[in-house]
Amino acid sequence: MPNENVNIGTPAGDLARWFGEPGRLAVQRAVAELRASRPVKLTADPPPFQGSAFAVAAAETLGGARIKAWHAAAMGGLGLILPAPRLRHLGIDVSGPSAVSLDDLSGPEIDALILAVEPKLPPLVHRPAEPAEAAALELLKRAYLLPAAVVLPLGDDEPAMVEVHTRAVENFHDQSARDLAIAARTRVPLAEAVNSEFVVFRGGDGLREQLAIVIGKPDPAAPVLTRLHSACLTGDLFASLKCDCGDQLRGAVREIAEAGGGVLLYLDQEGRGIGLVNKMRAYGLQELGHDTVDADAVLGYGPDERRYAVAGAMLALLGYRRITLMTNNPGKIEALEDFGVNVVGHQRLIGAVNPHNHDYLQTKARRAGHYLDEFTEL
Fold this sequence. Notes:
By secondary structure, the protein is of the alpha/beta class. The chain has two domains: 12-173, DHBP synthase (Alpha-Beta Complex); 180-269 and 306-375, 3-Layer(aba) Sandwich (Rossmann fold). The protein is built from 16 helices and 14 strands. It has helices at residues 15-19, 22-35, 59-62, 64-73, 84-89, 107-115, 131-142, 166-178, 233-237, 245-258, 270-273, 276-287, 292-299, 309-318, 330-338, 358-368; strands at 40-43, 53-58, 79-82, 98-101, 126-128, 149-153, 163-165, 181-187, 196-202, 210-216, 224-230, 261-267, 322-326, 342-347. A seven-stranded mixed sheet has the order 5-4-3-6-2-1-7. Strands 8-9-10-12-11-13-14 form a seven-stranded mixed sheet, sandwiched between helices.
């Protein structure tokens, strides 16, 4: 029988203690709605809009014809927010996100504006996006949707929608790191590291589970050999030749085992943080001649959309405060240190070079500063 002395009622102010931080929960609900092609309500402290609330939807899930119809029904009140990399690809020299007017665009032209590589469009009327409109793009990125947001200022008679505040969007990754917890851990012998333990964490971005592989018995009192590996379905599982990810993953496990122990964090950050669908879109653009950085920019992304607060929290929960990082990416070292991880040294991790990934490695060396100089002249 239930304990009659237990009071399951709780004031609204205690919701964070019972169910998690409310802002983070709101972002998670909004992500689910956006991925299901439904709009959400994004609120902000005034300004930017009268009423400081607007509906936001993912442009790619609506499509140009529906966006045009919604724009007409809203008497021209709809706006399309695009990030600076996409706008620069379209020939519009901006330093930040902008709102593009839909007044003179047809449905097919809106589709082309959102995703086409070389769209034929009339001159575009645009203005700098307000901070809250830029937050709409960040919300779409958290949903792994293309950063192209349809926005509509809301009045007093708005329909019921999941509501999220811009501050919750801005704080989402850091809050996810604070809420991270170990859910399960067990021994899983690997081909090149028999003495391995898998540690699964719950509570990361968008409720995606994260994984640490503890190899051997690393000493928390000493710098721990550590690899942060972003998930790569094509390279890790299918041995794609377009990248060096699979080689790096297996090489890291082998080198950690040979060194006597360490940890590999396997992070759900496909495509440098843009998700599997957009990674495949970027691959298609690379087939047309764009390098990996420019391909992401055509889609509206920066060179690297990953964040590392969750990785820092994973290391802290495992008890590792000082690490030697296995990486070719100096930016990853700086990002980890920003989240309180003491990176006392690093060692490179080189995968196999082949005709299919040579240009990719060359781009990482020349444009992203990776420690791969010997590949630039191959």
